[in-house]
Septum formation initiator (Planobispora takensis), 355 residues
Amino acid sequence: MDRPLVITEDPDLLDDLLRVAAAAGAELDVAHAPAHARPYWARAPMVVVGGDAADALAATRPPPRHRVVLVTHGPEDPDTWRKCVAVGAQAVLELPSAERRLVDEFADAVEPAARAGLVVCVAGGRGGAGASVLAASLALVASRGGLRTLLVDADPLGGGLDLLLGQEETEGARWSDLVAREGRVSFTALRAALPSVSGLTFLSFHRGEAGAIPAEAMRSVLDAGQRGFDLVVVDLPRRPDPAAAEALGRAATTLLVVTADVRGVLAAAQTLTVLREHTGEIRAAVRTGILEDEVVTASLGVPCAGSLPDQPRLTAVLNRGTVPRLGSRTPLGRFCEAFLRSAVASGPFPPEAAR
């Protein structure tokens, strides 16, 4: 892959540009003189011209091209705009104030076209309803079906989705490594940093004390996730915090897992009131119980996404730290397949996905 091109002889400016590029997950080609830039000029996805090299570059009369920016350390002055026009730049960026925009420019230059990934949130109508199991299962079935999938643990007190997947010892970044992030995160860098299992990329918490996720960090992760993944599944806490609200605001669908008993429906009704403040489409995934599915959904006033019969052996599998097979013969596997077929905008979900 061709890399962004930087043209400058200023070592301080170059150091700053290398640092900003690293934050975007980008590597650079560097030309210390305009003559050295000729082989890269046309094919580089982006060209950054240092203010110190602008006049010398303009003298070579480079052919016009898109995505050229002039970067300076000094305050803006009329001569800066003259240089901008001379080299055919589309913008002038002054460091350090424009660092965040430059990160975005580098990231756009090195990333493939955005995927506009679908966000699906999963919440429990009450504690122990099985929302985390459903979120993990949806993500696993989607991944095995060929969808590039990211599973995000947004519940600091949920015990950790990595544990549920049997991957608590797997190396890779957790939320504590990402909570300070603001602004754009390269999805290629995010995917490389996060652990994965069976082709599924996931983000969970470290063991021990787990603080709340800043909304800015969740925003950065979801931005990257939607650019680089087909599907992002978010396991929510029962009461949305600012980070969960960020996810709900992006969700195409939110699944509310409801146990089909009186207490479960009453608890789900309270949860539903809070969820409706942040998101649009909400569907009930009904855990089989003493009440009929139609009674549950009519009481809540939401459509039914399907039934989830109990699977006694599933608990034993999860407690062993084994990733469940979730084949089409299992109730949970069938639910996930059916939901994904209806929800994934890119087309029908292949019937063999969960086998």
Observations:
- Residues 346-355 have pLDDT under 50 and may be disordered.
- The radius of gyration is 25 Å.
- Residues 136 and 151 are 7 Å apart (CA to CA).
